[in-house]
Amino acid sequence: MAEIERLIRAAAIELRVVSPKSAAARRCLAAYFGELATRFESGFNPGDGAPPNGLFVLARLHGRAVGCGGLRRIDERVGEIKRMWTAPEARGQGVARRILHELEALARMAGIETLRLDTNRVLVEAQAMYRREGYREIARYNDNPYAHHWFEKKLEPTAYLSTSLRKLLRRRRRPRERGCREITDRLDRHCAFSEASRREVPHDESSFLTPSITYRGLSALVRGTDLDAP
Questions:
Q1: 207 lies in a domain?
Q2: Per-residue pLDDT, 142
Q3: Which residue spans within 125-227 are E strands per DSSP?
Q4: Torsion sign over Cα 55, 202, 160, 152
Q5: Is residue 175 part of a domain?
Q6: 61 contacts 12 by C-beta, under 8 angstroms
Q7: Residues 6 or more apart from 158 whose CB is under 8 A from it?
């Protein structure tokens, strides 16, 4: 019965791309920073606490924010995952894994081929999840004073995303939406499969969560700008 209840709760989790400066995002980040300050040996100072440029994914359970994660572009082909966090009461339900998969899906759509991230040595549960999800440990790539482990993952293209997102973008296309063709062209290059191979890919909509994808958010990531920039 406990497993059934866990699965029901997991199915109720909703992921959305939101403004990283929204009230819900700020609350998640404040809780995340507070937990790091408690767990890190030397405490934690987030600086100005500004959310990452790019995309910010929020997980909600029954309307309440219970997790978050950010994605930013390092260069044209490399992105970085930042500020992955799940509320203590929602842990053990696959929230972090679903956020991670959503960020990876968004990265593919923006033409990112490699994802990187860093983590502190005390966050052993995060390290274990990243390894299970195909991330391999690499040499230091940044100057984060709180990081002890650095990871990287090469992204494989996904056929389902290519088909579903192209349709979504084409429905929303307007003459003034500059960059929309650039996004669809990148999808064609990085997510294209033959029809035969596409049919072999399981179409699990819960894994890709296409309703969370917005033109504005993808355009911001493709251009490497802040999600809240004009």
A1: yes
A2: 94
A3: 136-138, 149-154
A4: positive
A5: yes
A6: yes
A7: 105, 108, 191, 201, 208
C-alpha 171: how far from chain center? 24
The CA-atom distances, in angstroms, between 49 and each of 31, 124, 164 are 12, 24, 35
- Of 62, 84, 88, nearest in space to 10 by CA: 62
User: CA–CA separation, 190 vs 162, rounded Å?
Assistant: 8
* Helices then strands, each counted (H, E), the chain: 9, 7
Residue 44 corresponds to which tokens in the numbers above? Answer: 């934690």
The pLDDT, as a whole number, for residue 13 is 86
Amino acid at 76: E
Structural domain including 217 reads 159-223
pLDDT over threshold 50, residue 164: no
147 located within any domain: no
Asked if residues 83 and 51 have their Cβ atoms less than 8 Å apart, the reply is: yes
> For 166-212, what is each residue's pLDDT tens digit?
445 555 555 444 555 555 555 444 444 333 333 333 333 333 333 34
Find how far residue 5's CA is from the centre of its chain. 26
The answer to whether residue 29 sits within a structural domain is: no
Residue type, 51: P
Instruction: Give dist(CA 229, CA 134) in Å, integer.
Output: 33
**Helix pair 159-172, 95-109: axis angle to 10 deg:** 70
pLDDT in tens, 108-131: 988 899 999 999 999 999 999 999
Q: How many domains does the chain have?
A: 1
